Amino acid sequence: MKRNSQMPKYHELMNPLLEALHELGGSGSIEEIAQKVAELSDLPEDLLNMPHNPEKSSQTEIEYRLAWARTYLKKYGLLENSDRGIWLIVPEKSDIKSVDPQEVVKTVRAEHKKQKQAVEKDHPPEYDTDVEIPDETESWRSMLHHILIHDLSPDAFERLSKRILRESGFIQVEVTGRSGDGGIDGKGIMRLSGFLSFHVIFQCKKYQGSVTASDIRDFRGAMIGRADKGLFITTGTFTRDAIREATRDGAPPIDLVAGDQLADKLKELGLGIKKEMVEKISVDTEWFKSI
């Protein structure tokens, strides 16, 4: 796919990424960081919504390049991330507001080269060390995206969404899927702590592109007077205008779940995603010296 010359390269996004994190108070989810970078940039909407590789991922090109920027800044020792996908500036470096991107790239690649040489020295016949620094886009995400888009029928995707909601604490979940119903695919009740309940209407959209503000408005029009909240689930992404429309003041709120969030939720719930723990064994040399 031809990339627009206006699209910033990954190293050019390092300082906007840092600025976004500082604006967010020093930490944020991948989604929050991407939204804040979009707000702070003057990039046109069509550029922000440009897909990276629709066949393999729901990421936009800007999200893909931000992932590389985060990876480099983490290896540089400036960022860290939690198991729940929250990224933050390392506390002792919280006063750093900007970096020299070229210096970051040079330092990280030099360290990577050292590690590669060490591996080649110890295991020359077994390791293919001619490999780039990996980013966060794990192969399982690409495989999952392909399955959701190409292998699951629309009915199966609705059933999967129903299962996700039930596993997440919803009760009385129904899949309606009636045509001409404004895109409403189902409804349910979210019960909080056994006391508070919210009636939720949801839409499930198998999609490789970006859901637009028009889609959100149509969905909201169908849900008004029928639920407390709306939930829009897609295998694709949401445009910046769609995100603004979903949270517009004075309008019934709509929560958005994009492809990457959907993948994370399936992983968290263990629905079709298996996590394998690898045992790591090491020798405590200091223990033997103390005998």
Which helices and strands appear, and what pairs or packs with what?
Elements: H1 14-23, E1 27-29, H2 30-40, H3 45-48, H4 61-75, E2 79-81, E3 86-89, H5 101-122, H6 139-151, H7 154-167, E4 170-175, E5 186-192, E6 196-205, E7 210-211, H8 213-223, E8 229-234, E9 237-238, H9 240-246, E10 254-257, H10 259-269, H11 285-289
Parallel strand pairs: 6-8, 7-9, 8-10
Antiparallel strand pairs: 1-3, 2-3, 4-5, 5-6
Helix pairs in contact: 1-2, 8-9
Describe the structure.
- With 291 residues, this protein is an alpha/beta fold.
- The protein has 2 domains: 1-137; 143-269, Trna Endonuclease, Chain: A, domain 1, CATH 3.40.1350.10.
- Helices cover 42% and strands 16% of the residues.
- It has helices spanning 14-23, 30-40, 45-48, 61-75, 101-122, 139-151, 154-167, 213-223, 240-246, 259-269, 285-289, and strands at 27-29, 79-81, 86-89, 170-175, 186-192, 196-205, 210-211, 229-234, 237-238, 254-257.
- The radius of gyration is 22 Å and the shape is globular.
- The model is unreliable at 125-137 (pLDDT under 50).
